[in-house]
Design goal:
By secondary structure, the protein is α/β, with parallel strands linked by helices. About 30% of the residues lie in helices and about 25% in strands. The protein contains 7 helices and 8 strands, in the order βαβαααββαβαβββα. It has an 8-stranded mixed beta sheet, with helices on both faces.
């Protein structure tokens, strides 16, 4: 079964909206390698309409311009791009199509197809739906050492918790943390009475 990974630029206070307004001072070779290892290595991209519109409005022109980012732009152009939207869409960027049918059924079928990893970048609404349906395999967070203090957070208000387990972590020279999580089983019930046994004692 194919793996779905989501990568997000996120601030210390959990903001994921409009990272172009705050994350570029932290973009270095380490972050470029992390982005390429996720987004650039996948053969399929699953993205929301707004993210797709942003990508389609920039990357084809960058590929045609032949600049320093043309190689990465070509990777995105060559990848299969599946867009989630309630509207009927038409596309000008090559290898683009719309996700059809029930979300969970369509994504499950996509995961069962032959091929490599399926990647997301941004597309917070899609990430939330994948997590809600238990379809997201890895969540890659590039945590920036800045409190943005306004904008959409990754996790919205809900009565349901989302347990995660840490698979790996790395610290970049800019102070950015690259944290990789996977879904975890529900946490066991515990109280302060359980926790206090782990506090230091006078004889320690």
């Amino acid at each position: 079964m194919r793996k779905i990974t989501a990568s997000l630029f996120i601030s210390l206070d959990g903001v994921v909206e409009a990272p172009d307004q705050w994350h570029f001072p932290y973009f270095n070779d380490e972050m470029g390698a992390a982005v390429d290892a996720g987004l650039g290595a996948a053969d399929t991209l699953l993205i929301g309409r707004r993210t797709y519109d942003s990508f389609a409005g920039a990357w084809p022109d960058r590929e045609a311009a032949g600049g320093e980012d043309a190689h990465f732009a070509k990777k995105l152009g060559d990848a299969r791009k599946i867009v989630l939207s309630r509207q009927n869409l038409s596309f000008t960027w090559r290898n683009s199509e719309q996700l059809k049918g029930d979300f969970a059924d369509a994504v499950t079928a996509l995961k069962n197809e032959p091929g490599g990893d399926i990647a997301l970048s941004g597309s917070v609404s899609v990430v939330r739906q994948l997590m809600a349906h238990g379809l997201l395999d890895e969540l890659h967070l590039l945590v920036h050492p800045i409190a943005v203090r306004k904008g959409m957070r990754l996790f919205d208000e809900s009565e349901t918790t989302i347990p995660l387990k840490l698979l790996s972590s790395a610290t970049f020279s800019t102070g950015v943390l690259h944290l990789v999580y996977a879904p975890a089983e529900s946490t066991a019930d515990a109280t302060y009475e359980d926790a206090k046994t782990h506090l230091p004692r006078d004889d320690q």
